[in-house]
Amino acid sequence: MEHEQGTAASIIIPLRAQEIEQREILRLNRLLETIPAGFEVIIVDDGSEPVVRQHIRHIVQQRTLQGQVVRGIYLRTRHRRFSLARARNRGARVARSPVVIFHDVDFLALTDVYWRLLAHIREVELATRPERFFCVPVAFLTEEGTEHFLENFEASQEAWCFRKRQNHPHERMNFLVQGSSCIVTNRDDLLAMGGHDEGFKGHGAEDFELLHRLSCLYPIAPRPPEYTRNMGSGPITEYRGFRAYFALYGEECRQEGCTLVHLWHPKRTEKGYYRHKQNFKRLQMVMDKSTTSTYGSRPQIDPRKLLEAH
Question: What span, in angstroms and rounded, lies between the C-alpha atoms of 202 and 196?
Answer without folding.
Answer: 12
